[in-house]
Amino acid sequence: MTQPFRPRRSALYLPASNPKALAKARTLPADVVILDLEDAVAPESKAEARAMAVAAVAEGGFGQRELVVRANGLDTEWGADDLATAAVAGPDAVLVPKVSSPAEVRAYDAELASAPAHTRLWIMIETCACLPVLHDLAACAGDTRLAGFVLGTNDFAKEMRARPGLARTPFLPILTMAVAAARAHGLVVLDGVCNEFRDLDRFAAEAAQGLEFGFDGKTLIHPDQIAPCNAVFSPDAAEIAWAEAVEASFALPENAGKGAIKVDGKMVELLHLDQARRVLAVAAAISGGT
Asked: How many structural domains does the chain have?
């Protein structure tokens, strides 16, 4: 069944152990809030962060924002408790790290067996070992809660010993492969973070690159990145006008049943109608969101 479009232009990581950050998250224009129990939380604060994340989910107040809890891995001392607690809390999704095989997807899915039906499983794509099996990982969406890929480019840089630079050249094949696998199986796919949170021009360029690759949005490490990210991943007035013209033209009686027509002097096909409808769905979801 086709689900209504939900914008995921900006996905902000916040440490679940920080009460001020949790309160501020309810006021920020991010489409997705990721309450982090993993990288952003020190070992001695893991249990406290878990309790605070559960309390935040229960309290609500996030409006239309999608609420995600990032758990520690099952190979850590905190992972099993994170998954069990998240299953009870029932956020929109649980994000898990360093998944490298379909067996791991199924293990995480089993840990969430008691979670509400709306709680989806998102996985971090951030290990060299996962690259040969990206399509196998994505195919798990057919019989598990899996619904999203999130790129972990910092972890890729560490494992690969790469120096990505402004163009992120070492990652370009990975970005393509991840988006293609996600699209083949109907998954959400979010680009990795940009560490240069004070350089918003660089951030905007990296976000635009992610849009070119086909990502739904980008993960963020600082609230200042939200506005430029939302701008990049939102259709502009020209895109919306084009989409409206294409949809209206195909709806004309004289174009009924046609596979290709002229719009503003250019040939467009049914595939362009599909693209136009998605642009309009994105615009409508954004205008009705946070």
From this structure: 2
